[in-house]
Input
Amino acid sequence: MAGSSRPAASGLNELGRLLARRIRLAGPLSVADYMAEALGHPLHGYYATRDPFGAGGDFITAPEITQIFGELIGLWCADGWVRMGRPDPVILAELGPGRGTLMADALRALRVAPEFRRALRLHLLETSPVLRQMQAKTLADADPRWHHSFATLPEGPLIVIANEFLDALPIRQFVRGEKGWHERRVALGSDGASLTFALDATASAAGAALIPTALGDAPPGSLVEVRPAALSLAVAIGKRFATEGGLGLFIDYGHGQSRCGETLQAVRAHHRHDVLAAPGDADLTAHVDFAAFAEAAASAGARAWGPLPQGAFLTALGLAERASALLKRATPSQARDIESACRRLIDPAEMGTLFKAMAIADPALSAPAGFGGSENT
Output
């Protein structure tokens, strides 16, 4: 193993000690394996043990900022259902529903689309028992069904919504050496009681096959992050839409074209946190490579639209008009909150540019709402 310059994180917690024991027995972990354990360990994983959202948690997502976000997505789904030919029933699936806030706002907005509301069957992909309980309370009237995997969704026409879901799927990291790509792993520090990053001593031919074509000739020292789980999901969704019909909306932060650079980060109590310190106690995410996701979906027969900056997408859906309607009956304090929330969602200095929206759809469908003329090429 070739060492990394990043210092080791010491003072291991319970999950850290379990991972250290695993490394001693089987060798260093891929970054993907480390992320999977830190986020999803059944006893000590981040999402298995807490509600991470809101001011009292570790981060705030768009649905928690304003009801307008979920309302617009609900109407986007209704418009998509019409473009699909109004199938009845139709599966509406949200991947990573959080507290259920987005879906609750979406369903409330669908009072103006009663035919779609009656036709939809709500399914939620959620692995966290804590969040499932919250979703059950928030969405009780919608009779949801839960899944651990996209593969278990029932057959039939499908609409998929995923807000800040892809960024939490595990990544692998590769560093370009003089003779190929070396995988970056999580190893034991020199003290035997801490975690650190290290590189495989030999280049990986299998790893090189995962590198996006556009980055294959990156210079030595370049680091590339790949997300096999997201690519597999894109292929599964692409096949499903191409054969059974459907469309999906993916909103997340990331880049529109594949690029080099480390984006893996940990967040705890709304602040950056050491990625290797106290695994399971902080959220771990990395930027989404929308180009790679679109290419994988297209390879399976679907059509990709976007990505568009979140600000442009929400504006096209009518964010300003919905905010104006709410402001007419708002108190001065409420008006300030509404204006601040909308600014946060669309301002380029806030979430408006870093966050992006992409649609994946049955190739027979016309451009989804908000995506006119923005097909991925």
